[in-house]
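Why does residue order matter? Because the sequence determines the fold. Keep that principle in mind as you read this record.
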Amino acid sequence: MSALLWLLIPFLTGIAATVWAWIAGRRNPSPPDHDTWEDLDHYQQMRTALDTNEHCKAA
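Structure:
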């Protein structure tokens, strides 16, 4: 009987997560992100900005 209780724990956890997602309004997953190239350009700009030696330095 104790083995069945160990199987019940993940089952109840999954049900609780489903209820929580339903209450939180996440019934449908978000659509996939199609702006991959735009995100890559933004990442490259951030990397370039952080890579320069124009950082503030403590005196």
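The first helix runs from residue 2 to 23.
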